[in-house]
Predict the 3D structure of the following.
Amino acid sequence: MSSIQFQIIDSTLREGDQFALAHFTLEQKITIAQLLEDVGIEYIELSNPVSSPTSLQVTKAITSMVRNSKVLAHVRCHEKDIQAAIAGGVDGVQMLLGVATHLTEHSHGKNLDQIILAAQSAIHMGIAAGLETRFSSEDAFRTDRSQIVILFSALEDSGVLRFGIPDTTGTATPHQVAELTADLVSRFRLPLEFHAHNDAGCAIANTLSFLEAGGRFINTSVLGIGERNGITPLTSMIGRLYTIDRHLVEKYQLDKLQELDSYVASCLGTEIPFDLPLSSPYAFYHRAGIHTKAVLSSSNTYEIYDVDAFRRQRQIDFSSPISGWHAVTFRIHQLTGRLIADTVAQSIASDMREVASSRSFSPAEADRFILEKAHVYSI
Ligand code: HCA
Ligand code: CU
């Protein structure tokens, strides 16, 4: 049994709203929140309620609808942001301010003492209003470690519930994440939260490193959408943990993830990306004859997820120049309920490979081709 313990803070409705193709309507946001709640995601993070003319209305609509997940507002350490979050009826606030030199110089312009004062007074406000309050040090992996330690030390007894260490630019390596996490876990008693951008393709690996090093709260978004090329994708991350120990994710409704992914993709007007682990439409697609034979005999030969647990469909390609006859047997059985003789399947597969070498088949054409051949060879 793994020692990992974690909760998910999904940020599709905050970080995800910053994605280039995201133009979610209020109804779509409500549906996304509902689907996240159905999956059993512990926290749903929303955009700052003062960030747009409609964001307070969105916050109110979602907090009045969501029952089982906690709803959080992402806010600056500003009084008006926290007031709006309170008015929006959220369970908690996700406060953010960075001490990295490039931020103190080019973003908010505050020095460390001013940052500590602003954070303390914002945290007090959140706590006084009964909100679950988190404080995050922006761009933690490009920040001088000593500054983070001074900042977190000054805030540790303020009543804040956890500290965030986002990899804002996706530059961290799994090793660096493990090292910083372990160091902060040993220094502070508060749990840590991690937010991994995917600029260097390490978001999932970094999030796993964080958990293995003792971190507790992780950020995700559906399909990984967010600024630039996004953050840790929800389904893929759940899949990553499932492959380590499926008990880690049994608290979630795994069979509802596909619906959530598809819904968000349809809102964005895109396909689910073909290379997204587990979410990909092709995650259970097998082509080469050697693979299809083995996977049909025992699925774990080439699959690390349980196709039924995630309510997905295994696809066996029987219409490519490299497909094998087991795939033909399987498909004809799927289509007709009949089991054909091996010799018949071998002849059909050979005909299929011959034709498929010079042109591709649509799925419907391929089905027709093997059914016709099965008919001919069986008479
Ligand atoms: C942002 C930055 C953020 C915040 C993460 C956090 C990041 O868009 O405001 O609150 O922990 O990547 O640093 O998304
Ligand atoms: Cu981010």
Q: What stands out?
A: The pocket of 3-hydroxy-3-carboxy-adipic acid (ligand 1) is lined by residues 15, 74, 94, 96, 136, 138, 164, 166, 168, 195, 197, 227 (CB under 6 Å).
